[in-house]
Amino acid sequence: MKVDFEKIFKEFEEDISRIKDLKSFKEVKDKYLSKEKGLITSLLKKIKEIPREEKPQFGKNVNILKGKITGKLEELKEKVELLELESRAKEESVDITLPGLDLPVGSHHPIKIVEKEICEIFERMGYFIAEGPEIETDFNNFEALNFPDDHPARDAQDTFFISEDKYYLLRTHTSPVQIRTMKKYGTPIKIIAPGKVFRRDTPDPTHSPIFHQIEGLVVDKNITMADLKGTLEKFARECFSEDTRIRLRPSFFPFVEPGAEVDISCIFCKGKGCRICKNSGWIEILGAGMVHPAVFEKCDIDPETYSGFAFGLGVDRIAILKYGIPDIRLFFENDVRFLRQF
Length: 342
Ligand SMILES: [Zn+2]
Hints:
Elements: H1 5-17, H2 22-33, H3 39-45, H4 55-91, H5 110-124, E1 128-129, E2 135-137, H6 138-141, E3 168-170, H7 176-185, E4 189-198, E5 210-220, H8 225-239, E6 246-251, E7 256-265, E8 282-291, H9 293-298, E9 307-314, H10 315-323, H11 336-339
Parallel strand pairs: 1-4
Antiparallel strand pairs: 2-3, 4-5, 5-9, 6-7, 7-8, 8-9
Bound molecules: zinc ion.
Zinc ion binds at residues 266, 268-269, 273-274, 276-277, 281.
């Protein structure tokens, strides 16, 4: 039998001229080089039918053909792969003119914004920021602050105690930072202490079991009630507006003597009387007073030599007034529709 190797190679060349992608390349490669059904394999099988003397030449011709085909296909493979990459790149191409993903930027919580503003006012007056833990001892939260044993605040109905013996509790005010600072640093002192405080209140529009206070404490020689009033006046003008006035009403807190509740002139009606100030023209914003001698004694400071004033203001209350927020609970619900507005 005669095999026309020239003709087979011509046909192969026609086949490869039609290759346009990896799929058609593979089809041609299988047609000629597949181990089971390829043309080269079938030629090698025919070697039995070849007369003995022609066998060496036939085998040689098959090997030459296989070499030429393999060589051509190797050359083509790179080109086809490149073509393939190009067409895939076209399909998966990125349109760089499309707008990017909109990554939302967070904002500060309104409580934190107001807390920072208030702290900055006092820092400009030379105050340092002090901090204390939210879990306190009865000593720092009540006893050293001159609360008698039977004071209603020491009742489990008002305070979150976290040990059976009522030794540990969640601080009910930021005043224990006064005790910590006086014990640790002695005199003189000029600090403000921002932080969370906890009381067993049922949440409603004006009450929350967690709220925020900023405590202030100044201790030195010759500190008087006039220093306290001047400081709070300056604070009120910077925090609200230049024409804000304050008034001090006598009040009682165990850790100060005398004690006062401090009102600001209503920022909404400028003192004329409106719904928010309940027609009084005044809004209560903080409690203050002169540090009680008994508190100094608990902290080993001589009340004959030193005097001081302290105040505690409610950050939530001030944020509510500044932003006109109708419900304190909004601060704790983490609703982004609310938080996004600040
Ligand atoms: Zn008013």
